[in-house]
């Protein structure tokens, strides 16, 4: 299926990127930075999806959290690597972040607005709003990046299945509800971050915590188990991603499952009593205005009326008004180890790339990271240069290695973890020290690779000095495991 070039492309081959989510936008930004022309195809608003609400690029349909932002966890390391690789997604996320303890969370509306504005304004990127019903096959053999995400349209999904020679794999994903802040009973909740880990300054904690007594918790769990669920096609045949289970699935596994999962009280003593509650429901600020709060870890497929009834059993939410109810959608992905190389190219067709959740990664940051490398490598092909792969000792390199080398018989999407990175030769026994040491090694190896790898734009001396100054100023402290703070 051909995709025609737009007007300003004359001599150099065009890069075609299908999907305007985080991976697609990052891929387009990276490719355009090499001076290559890019057309980015996004089917919204011409073709809607089950969960998107707007026509903006990079709309966050699930949580507003990008997860941990310190160097003692793998996703914090991945973020820092992406910052050093000039990631558009990280640049915008840092600019529109909201208080979230040691995590990076964003104002979802401003995030989508700013990514859309940046991509739309880039002179090398053209955006076409239409559905692409099959994998493009440009007549000139120019690169194509499929970054359509888990909600790939049915026609394109069928063509992808035909290309990979097998059915897609899939799991169900669920979305947490969002509450109007002014309807929260502040006399019953308290502000705190777990273990007082916070990047937000002197706020006294970045989360609102709703404490449960034992009786309140047991009544809540019984109500969740008994509540009526929304019907989901193929529910019995398709699994959930273990890192994003609906609360009702967890509640069915046992009465204490929620209390040792998203409702665990550890590290969250109630300052009014000095004691740990029996269980806690946490609320995280969802926008910079502070008028919306999302229920952390409360993904659900309950019917909306049931959600309102059950969630108002949470102390402090008795009169809550919901800006958005939780919902469930099907996530589709390819069996990446049978399809992809660690450059995010397909093995059968070197000019075809997959990136984002459809490629078999899980999470906002991981999706954008795959788009970052896929976009760069697509540009390198246009420039007649070899694709590159970051060192396996880096988080971004380990992610590419995992999707291309995992066991295809038992393949599941993965968040980035230290467990998929090579171990240290002389690892500290203390877990946090070991993780910080792995982050230290990763950032050193990334810096050397950026200076030496063929095909990457060499960093200037000024850029290298910025890295040094950021580390020395505490914006990135391996010793403390602290990720970058937002600019003032």
Primary descriptors:
five-stranded parallel beta sheet; alpha/beta; six-stranded antiparallel beta sheet; 2 domains; 17 strands; disordered C terminus; disordered N terminus
Number of domains: 2
CATH class of the largest domain: Alpha Beta
Poorly predicted parts: 1-10, 233-238, 471-488
- State the major sheet: 6 strands, antiparallel
CATH superfamily of the largest domain: FAD/NAD(P)-binding domain
Q: Give the overall silhouette.
A: globular
Mean pLDDT: 85
Number of strands: 17
Approximately how much helix is present in the residues? 25-40%
| Structural class label | alpha/beta
The CATH architecture of the largest domain comes to: 3-Layer(bba) Sandwich
Total helical elements: 12
Query: Beta fraction of the residues?
Result: 5-15%
CATH topology of the largest domain: FAD/NAD(P)-binding domain
**H/E element sequence:** EHEEHHEEHEEHEEEEHEHEEHEEEHHHH
Radius of gyration: 22 Å
Widest beta sheet: strand line-up: 10-11-13-14-9-15
Could you please describe the fold and organization of this structure?
By secondary structure, the protein is α/β, with parallel strands linked by helices. It folds into two domains: 15-168 and 334-473, FAD/NAD(P)-binding domain (3-Layer(bba) Sandwich), CATH 3.50.50; 174-330, Beta Barrel (Elongation Factor Tu (Ef-tu), domain 3). It has helices spanning 22-33, 74-84, 88-95, 108-121, 154-164, 214-226, 247-253, 304-311, 364-382, 395-405, 431-452, 461-473; strands at residues 15-18, 38-41, 65-68, 97-98, 103-106, 125-128, 144-146, 169-175, 178-180, 190-192, 207-212, 239-240, 279-285, 292-295, 322-324, 327-333, 352-354. A six-stranded antiparallel beta sheet has the order 10-11-13-14-9-15. It has a five-stranded parallel beta sheet with strand order 6-2-1-7-17, with helices on one face. Strands 3-5-4 form a three-stranded antiparallel beta sheet. Helix 1 links the parallel strand 1 and strand 2 (38-41). The termini are far apart.
């Amino acid at each position: 299926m051909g995709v025609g070039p737009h007007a300003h492309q004359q001599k150099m081959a065009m890069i075609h990127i299908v999907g305007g989510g985080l991976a697609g936008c990052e891929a387009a930004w990276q490719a355009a930075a090499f001076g290559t022309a890019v057309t980015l195809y996004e089917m919204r608003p011409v073709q809607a999806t089950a969960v998107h609400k707007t026509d903006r690029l990079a709309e966050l349909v699930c949580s507003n959290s990008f997860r941990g932002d310190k160097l003692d966890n793998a996703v914090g390391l991945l973020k820092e690597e992406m910052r050093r690789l000039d990631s558009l997604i990280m640049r915008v996320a840092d600019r529109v972040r909201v208080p979230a303890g040691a995590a990076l969370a964003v104002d979802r509306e401003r995030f989508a607005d700013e990514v859309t504005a940046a991509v739309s304004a880039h002179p090398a990127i053209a955006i076409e709003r239409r559905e692409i019903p099959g994998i493009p096959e440009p007549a000139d053999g120019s690169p194509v990046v499929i970054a359509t995400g888990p909600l790939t349209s049915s026609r394109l999904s069928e063509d992808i299945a035909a290309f990979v020679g097998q059915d897609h794999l899939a799991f169900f994903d669920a979305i947490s509800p969002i509450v109007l802040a002014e309807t929260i009973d502040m006399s019953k909740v308290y502000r705190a971050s777990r273990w007082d880990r916070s990047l937000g300054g002197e706020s006294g904690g970045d989360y609102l915590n709703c404490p449960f007594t034992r009786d309140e918790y047991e009544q809540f769990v019984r109500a969740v188990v008994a509540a009526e669920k929304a019907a989901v096609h193929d529910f019995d045949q398709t699994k959930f991603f273990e890192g994003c289970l609906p609360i009702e699935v967890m509640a069915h596994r046992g009465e204490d499952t929620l209390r040792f999962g998203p409702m665990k009280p550890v590290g969250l003593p109630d300052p009014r009593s000095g004691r740990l509650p029996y269980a806690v429901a946490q609320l995280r600020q969802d926008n910079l205005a502070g008028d919306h709060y999302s229920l952390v870890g409360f993904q659900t497929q309950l019917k909306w009326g049931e959600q309102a009834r059950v969630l108002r059993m949470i102390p402090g939410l008795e009169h809550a008004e919901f800006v958005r109810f939780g919902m469930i959608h099907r996530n589709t992905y390819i069996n990446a180890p049978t399809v992809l190389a660690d450059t995010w190219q397909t093995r059968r067709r070197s000019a075809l790339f997959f990136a984002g959740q459809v490629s078999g990664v899980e999470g906002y940051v991981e999706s954008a990271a795959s788009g970052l490398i896929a976009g760069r490598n697509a540009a390198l092909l246009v420039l007649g240069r070899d694709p590159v792969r970051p060192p396996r000792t880096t988080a971004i390199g380990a992610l590419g290695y995992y999707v291309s080398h995992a066991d295809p018989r038992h393949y599941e999407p993965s968040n980035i973890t230290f467990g998929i990175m090579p171990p240290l030769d002389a690892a500290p026994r203390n877990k946090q020290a070991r993780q910080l040491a792995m982050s230290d090694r990763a950032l050193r190896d990334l810096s050397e690779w950026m200076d030496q790898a063929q095909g990457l734009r060499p960093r200037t001396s000024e850029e290298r000095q910025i890295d040094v100054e950021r580390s020395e100023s505490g914006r990135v402290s391996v010793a403390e495991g602290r990720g970058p703070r937002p600019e003032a």
